[in-house]
Amino acid sequence: MLEKIIDNTSEYIDSMPKKERKKYGQFFTSIETARYMAELFEIPQNQDKISLLDAGAGSGILSCAMIERLEHIEGVKKVEVLCYETDENVMPLLQKNLNLAKEFSSKEVEFVIKEDNYILSQYLDFNYMVGGNFNPPKYDIVIGNPPYMKIPKEAPEAKAMPDICYGAPNMYFIFAAMGLFNLKENGEMVYIIPRSWTSGAYFKRFRDYFLSEGKLCHIHLFGSRNKVFDKEDVLQETIIIKKKKTHNTPESVTISSTNTNRDFDNCKEITVPYELVVSGEDKYVYLVTSEDEVEVLRKLNKYKKTLPDLGLKMKTGLTVDFRNRDILRDEEEEGTIPLFYSQHIKQGQVNFPIQKEHEYILTDQKGLMQDNKNYLFVKRFTAKEEPRRLQCGVYLARKFPQYNKISTQNKLNFIDGIMTEISECLVYGLYVLFNSTIYDEYYRILNGSTQVNSTEVNNMPVPELETIQEMGRKLIKIGDFSEKSCNLILEEYYG
Predict the structure, then answer these.
(1) pLDDT value at position 6?
(2) Is the pLDDT of residue 225 over 60?
(3) Helix (H, G, I), strand (E, B), or coil: what is residue 41?
(4) Distance between CA 267 and CA 40 in Å, rounded?
């Protein structure tokens, strides 16, 4: 049955321009992924009726996979399915596929398709507002592949859920929050969504709600970024999550991984303590895939301080060069100051000039200038294939005595002292941390993208200030700035 539904969906994808589907953030689930998601649910053997919600149902692949799964559970006699969908183009296909699943099943299958806006039709309920239903319907199972699309902060869906949204939100996490709201107590929810929500300040409101109103039971990771959705060229860090509607924190979370959506038979699994996966005041979610990565978290989580706790802070470079073309200069001239790029970092040091274009700026804008003092520069962007995500270089003010001010391009991050200047030994100590293997691994566990986010770095655990300075003095003494040297120094402190 599901094979036929996939065939129907493939025909639709081939007939519908990608531009049209993109309007709705549509990326259709593969048959392998749909079956895997359906299998994640724990279905009570003694429950004769199951209610199922599928918001943003698309062609109904997930609902149909769930009906297929329930076919093999003897105790279940009736399946009630509610699908939300607003795309008129896909509606006939959704109806056709649900009818096919109903015809195939030996269970009593009832389905309803709502053409309402999933979020706006329920926001009064969600916010417990006048006019809402104070006893809204709840479901045993919530399954979904929600739309992946950013919306303006003034969009009706964003304004409808102010406790969840910050800035210009993405529809996927608004759907996930509402999905959890629609779930019965102790009911289960399985969603396939981007991993971007697992860290960063942008998603903090969502994480606060999502991880307090329900608990993670299972997370599945894909190694590939572009082999998750069939017939779809999507470059996206995607995960499958299973949640339970409960306030009781489980002891552990199962984390599984495959490379693509076609090798679930070769799935790797580990069980990780819940407090290691969901950690800190900001409720970051650490996606580990091996015992070695678990050990990385254990070692660094021994440290209880962060950079801001020590009077330090990572910031993003000040100058957006393409927006300030009129002040860029290729050569030094009277009044110019150096503009540092990530390309100036070489083997742990900052080299300038390197005969790169636009190495200088001529400006009196205070917002584009910073004091010439010691910094640790960290590249903000790296390629997926590069062996390290954290790539840094030591900037020493004394090497550039001719300048009172400098500037940094916004594809470069820098660590600065909040209250006082950073000493040379402290800069080198910070270099030991961020050039080490374990800190690079920690950041990769925290963030799957190729961008180094300053908010996340500022939340990483670090040793005491005096310890970092001591590390710096050791590095200066040996004069070897390799990753291996940094590892050896750091190992003396975390064991």
Answers:
(1) 77
(2) no
(3) coil
(4) 13
Tokens at residue 101, please?
Answer: 């699943």
353: preceding bond cis by omega (within 30 degrees): yes
Residues facing 279 on adjacent strands: 284
Nearest to 159 by CA among 111, 134, 184, 127: 127
pLDDT above 70 covers a percentage of the chain that reads 94
For residue 22, is pLDDT > 70? no
What's the whole-model pTM score? 0.87
As a whole number, mean pLDDT of residues 257-283 equals 90
DSSP 323: G
Distance (Å, whole) CA 301 – CA 418: 24
Rounded to whole angstroms, the Cα distance separating 195 from 8 reads 29
What φ, ψ does residue 109 adopt, rounded to 5°? -110, 125
Residue with tokens 């600065």: 416
- pLDDT class for 234, splitting at 50, 70, 90? very low
Closest residue by Cα to residue 393 from 410, 409, 406, 374 = 374
Question: Is the predicted pLDDT of residue 320 greater than 70, yes or no?
Answer: yes
The dihedral through the CA atoms of 261, 440, 381, 170 has a sign that is positive
* Residue among 129, 146, 94 at smallest CA distance from 115: 94
pLDDT at 88 over 50: yes
Query: Do residues 314 and 415 make contact, with C-beta atoms less than 8 angstroms apart?
Result: yes
Beta bridge partners of 269: 256
Domains recognised in the chain with CATH numbers? 2-289 (3.40.50.150), 308-494 (3.90.220.10)
Under 8 Å between Cβ of 394 and 348: yes
Instruction: Give whole-number Cα distances, 239 to 22, 54, 396, 406, 413, in Å.
Output: 20, 18, 42, 41, 28
Please identify which residue in the block is written with the tokens 């531009």: 19
Residue 227: pLDDT band with limits 50, 70, 90: very low
Backbone angles phi, psi at 141, to 5 degrees: -130, 135
Nearest C-alpha neighbor of 414 from the set 394, 400, 429: 394
